[in-house]
Amino acid sequence: MTETALPLAGLRVLDISSFIAAPAAAVVLGDWGADVIKVEGPDGDPNRRIMHDSSNYPKGEVNYPWQMDSRNKRSIALDLKKPEARAALDRLIEKADVLICNFPPPVRDKLRLGYDAVKAVNPRIIYASLTGYGETGPDRDRPGFDVTAYFARSGLLDAQRYEGGPPGVPVPAQGDRATAMTLVSAILMGLMQRMKTGEGSWVGTSLLGNGLWSCGVVAQAALVGAFLPHRPPPDRPRSALGNIYRTADDRWLQLTIVREDKMWPGICEAIEQPGLLADPRFATVEDRRRRSAELAALLREAFAKKDYEHWRVEMGRHGITFGVISRPQDVPDDQQAVACGAVVETAIPGMPRTLSNPIRLGFADQRAAGAAPDLGQHSDEILAEAGLGADEIAALRAAGALS
After folding, report:
1. Alpha helix locations (H) across 170-247?
2. Residues contacting 357, CB < 8 A, separation 6+
3. At residue 214, what are phi and psi to the nearest 5 degrees?
């Protein structure tokens, strides 16, 4: 399929955002054919340097965070604090279909980048905003990252910890990427509304809102006054059949048995202990829950005797619902990840494979991942497409408004 046949071909997107969630949403639109213009300040998006600046990022020879979150984009470098640059941006806004912005509301207002100001330039534009904590309320102006707004404020970190232990810290950008997909959905709804009415609109989402949605079971429980104490450790779980176990080759299995009475016989066969079926200690669901520590000890001993590959075959043969807890270093060799299209080949020098976005369409394949842009790499051609002449572009550069 040619790129012109992609479902979002012909859509022009201004990505005036930084770091991860909002730029990742722009990546998804670009994957499906949109022309994404990355509008950066003179110093560029900090995500260009995050691999080196953050202690939580694996270090590599390839700037993989930037390549992943800015593939197929074009870059223009404008200093929006200068009136000349802001006027040039209006020329881009006039021709854009979507504008993505994740500045906090006070910064948007200072730069005249709020929805009303943008709508005055282009009434048909879909203005997509991402905030840490929402557009209204006492914390609307607070900057937020996924670890602070999505994970910490939503209760996710507390809900996942073991009793007596501290909350864990998520790996970088987990909440950002989930939130990006919500922003994509909001943008597509805005475009559908424009098809019906001919008018643009504001759409948006927040890291906090997405974190609460992800934490939906326990957050909704709290809204009706229902709580669970912190998770007990694996040696005395709430349910031994919803627990983790280590194999002989130091892999971890996650058992998730919902229909216990149906699968309990298969588990006993898989671990070669059919006698457990007649053991009165574990005769019913209630018995197994009441004696979960005893049952967990039996299962822990059984799983520790053989390698993961044995258990993969045996558990599959008996229809047991389980999953291996993969390590990041397992991803390059995960054949299923390749087969389902989650890991794909690229046209990026030094980075032959990357992660695709998770949307699948029966009528189109995603655009191949091309290299992310250098800062300001496409400034002149983007401005020329907006109708600026060579003299105007040179004047912007002389004024320090364009890099």
Report:
1. 174-197, 207-214, 216-223
2. 27, 28, 31, 181, 366
3. -65, -35
- In sequence order, the β-bridge partners of residue 402 are 78
d(CA 300, CA 126): 54
Give residue for tokens 């558990």: 315
Q: Which domains does the chain have, with CATH numbers?
A: 3-216+357-398 (3.40.50.10540), 244-329 (3.30.1540.10)
Listed residue (69, 106, 102, 109) closest to 86, CA to CA: 109
Tell me which DSSP letter residue 369 carries.
B
How is residue 186 written in tokens?
A: 């909001």
Contact partners, residue 177, CB within 8 Å, separation at least 6 = 20, 21, 24
The per-residue pLDDT for 168 is: 86
Q: What are the distances in angstroms from CA 32 to CA 7, 182, 212, 228, 244?
A: 6, 16, 28, 42, 38
Residue 47 contacts residue 41 (beta carbons within 8 Å): no
Dist. CA 204–CA 184, nearest whole Å: 9
Task: Convert the pLDDT of each residue in 251-297 to its tens digit.
Answer: 999 999 989 999 999 999 999 999 999 999 999 999 999 999 999 99
